[in-house]
Amino acid sequence: MDETPPRRTRTALRAAILIAGALLVAAAFYAGRTTAPEPASDPGAAACDDAHATLEDLEAQLTDGDSATYDEEQANRQLALTAATVVVQNPDCFDAAARADARRALDAAREEADDQDAARLREDLLACASAETEAQRALFC
What is the pTM of this model? Predict the structure, then answer.
């Protein structure tokens, strides 16, 4: 006697097992979604909000022109470089054009500072070379 169930019964049993498995997976997925904690707010959005608020504050200071310790041009320049630094340090918050402009401004400022340092060194070396007395050499060299 053949003890294997008929072919129809085996096919129906396999289908029932597959359906039960799929239902079990769907139930587990639903249970996981309903019991999962709420996703935390995007920390990047808060950082971008802070960066944009900082830029707005800097822009307000630039337009006010209120400068007590520097002359107005130097203060505005420093505020503009600070704004460029904010843009460069928060690349996810600004588009490519803003990041490129900010990088260009910072690079130009760095190059200008390097040129000024080199000019001061040249002046110091010339003053040292042209020093005639021991007191002048001590002062310039």
Answer: 0.53
